[in-house]
């Protein structure tokens, strides 16, 4: 195996995940400052809109990802997503009007929606079967690195905030006038590097096979693993393409043949968001304030969660091809269900301080070693070649619908039900998912994509 080429292709593609993570979380640190600048600090509706509008763009990006990936190819679409990240990073920090801010954030969300489904898809299609879990998990690792980079950048850019400072006084500070802009501009530098590096990676050989470009696909496979590897993979992919052709060109993702695997993919995708962990990143201010911390302490606590997220993502990369995908999904769903139950009880009892931070960190650790990376691994594996792009797009679309509802609903749940009942709701969702995964989630480690296709579609 040409490990240098394999890791280069996977890491370049995974840069979409890095920008996804940065753009997704940077708004959490900028939140107290742009809210003060635009005068929306006391308006839950506008706060929710600012936090969730990128998700509308995510839905657009996810909805069009499959069609575009099949039409123009995986490589070209990765370059398009990089360009969108670059333009939106500049625009979000440059605006002076709240409406323009919303439009720029929505445009950036399109890049997130494209990259979130496309990066793991490309990696799964070029990675050898025995290393696929680890390599697809690199995408989650770069997401986590992007999250931590945004958290560290926010902490370094923001000047100290006086205890008890209100929105009006914050709006007059450097943070309220310029600091939040530089937080968003930070994404422009990796976006430019991503755009440049996409020029040097090859196209997905499976996409080339689907387009009838067998010679080009075989040449890339030979570069990846040598002549024998190219012959075996080419034959396996070709047989799968011929079998799909025999099953009829009109067969769609929603046909009975694919119903079981589609439902599984949709549940996995939506649950990754509805498990509730992402509100910790997006609404860190509210969560840590409820735990008794001042705004001045906020950035340090956020960075602690980011470091935890990074460390335990390495645990996932080490275990995903050893323990398997199913085991890690069960650990994640069951573990978060128990942690949220305790966290809700602590909020109900008005517990504050280090104990609350420890529970939040434990929840992030559980998510980072399981649901965070394994969701993308499973989604990139379970669908046949013929429908992989559109199926990934459909599931990614569902994931962002779940994320939109989660993000937009949290301020209302937290305001009207309190943090305790909010986390109890998330606990009930996690326990329900645990039961579903026990019954329905298969083990996919070590199997070729074509073998999984035969098993999961009942061929």
Give unreliable regions as ranges.
none
How would a crystallographer describe the biggest sheet? none
Structural domain count? 2
CATH topology term of the largest domain: Growth Hormone, Chain: A
- For the record, the CATH architecture of the largest domain stands as Up-down Bundle
Briefly note the structural class of the backbone: mainly alpha
Give the helix tally. 20
| Cα Rg | 22 Å
What order do the helices and strands follow?
HHHHHHHHHHHHHHHHHHHH
Number of beta strands = 0
What is the terminal-to-terminal distance? 30 Å
Assembly of the depicted chains: single chain
- Strand fraction equals under 5%
Descriptive notes:
- This protein is mainly α and 459 residues long.
- The protein folds into 2 domains: 3-201 and 247-456, Up-down Bundle (Growth Hormone, Chain: A), CATH 1.20.1250; 203-246, GTP Cyclohydrolase I, Chain A, domain 1.
- It has helices spanning 3-38, 44-72, 74-94, 98-126, 132-157, 167-171, 174-185, 188-197, 205-210, 214-246, 259-274, 278-282, 284-290, 295-319, 325-348, 354-368, 371-381, 388-416, 418-440, 449-456.
Entry summary:
The protein is 81% helix and 0% strand. It has 459 residues and is mainly α.
Record keyword descriptors for this entry.
2 domains; globular; GTP Cyclohydrolase I, Chain A, domain 1; mainly alpha; Growth Hormone, Chain: A; single chain; 459 residues
Question: What topology does this entry show?
Answer:
Elements: H1 3-38, H2 44-72, H3 74-94, H4 98-126, H5 132-157, H6 167-171, H7 174-185, H8 188-197, H9 205-210, H10 214-246, H11 259-274, H12 278-282, H13 284-290, H14 295-319, H15 325-348, H16 354-368, H17 371-381, H18 388-416, H19 418-440, H20 449-456
């Amino acid at each position: 195996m040409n490990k240098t080429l394999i890791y280069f292709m996977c890491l370049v593609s995974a840069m979409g995940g890095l920008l996804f993570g940065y753009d997704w979380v940077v708004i959490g640190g900028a939140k107290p400052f742009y809210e003060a600048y635009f005068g929306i600090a006391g308006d839950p509706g506008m706060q929710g809109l600012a936090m969730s509008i990128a998700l509308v763009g995510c839905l657009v990006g996810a909805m069009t990802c499959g069609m575009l990936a099949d039409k123009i190819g995986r490589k070209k679409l990765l370059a398009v997503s990089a360009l969108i990240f670059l333009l939106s990073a500049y625009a979000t920090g440059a605006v002076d009007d709240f409406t323009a801010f919303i439009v720029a954030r929505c445009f950036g969300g399109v890049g997130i929606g494209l990259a979130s489904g496309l990066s793991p898809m490309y990696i799964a299609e070029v990675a050898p079967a025995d290393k696929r879990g680890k390599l697809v998990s690199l995408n989650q690792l770069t997401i986590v690195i992007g999250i931590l980079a945004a958290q560290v950048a926010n902490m370094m850019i923001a000047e100290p905030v006086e205890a008890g400072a209100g929105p009006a006084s914050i709006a007059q500070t450097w943070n309220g006038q310029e600091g939040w802009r530089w937080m968003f501009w930070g994404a422009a530098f990796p976006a430019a590097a991503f755009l440049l590096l996409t020029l040097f990676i090859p196209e997905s050989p499976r996409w080339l096979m689907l387009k009838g470009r067998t010679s080009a696909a075989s040449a890339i496979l030979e570069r990846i693993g040598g002549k024998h590897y190219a012959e075996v993979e080419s034959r396996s992919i070709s047989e799968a393409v011929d079998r799909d052709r025999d099953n009829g060109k009109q067969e769609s993702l929603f046909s009975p043949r694919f119903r079981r695997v589609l439902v599984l993919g949709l549940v996995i995708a939506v649950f990754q968001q509805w498990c509730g962990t992402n509100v910790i990143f997006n609404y860190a201010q509210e969560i840590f304030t409820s735990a008794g911390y001042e705004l001045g302490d906020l950035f340090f606590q956020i960075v602690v969660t980011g470091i935890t997220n990074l460390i335990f993502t390495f645990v996932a990369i080490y275990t995903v091809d050893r323990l398997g995908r199913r085991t890690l999904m069960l650990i994640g769903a069951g573990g978060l269900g128990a942690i949220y139950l305790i966290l809700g009880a602590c909020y109900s009892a008005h517990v504050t301080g280090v104990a609350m931070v420890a529970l939040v960190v434990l929840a992030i650790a559980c998510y980072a070693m399981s649901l965070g990376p394994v969701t993308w691994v499973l989604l990139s594996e379970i669908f046949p070649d013929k429908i992989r792009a559109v199926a990934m797009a459909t599931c990614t679309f569902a994931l962002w619908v779940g994320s939109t509802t989660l993000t937009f609903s949290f301020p209302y749940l937290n305001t009207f039900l309190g943090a305790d009942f909010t986390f109890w709701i998330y606990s009930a969702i996690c326990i329900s998912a645990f039961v579903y995964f026990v019954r329905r989630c298969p083990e996919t480690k070590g199997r070729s994509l074509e073998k999984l296709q035969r098993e999961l579609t009942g061929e």
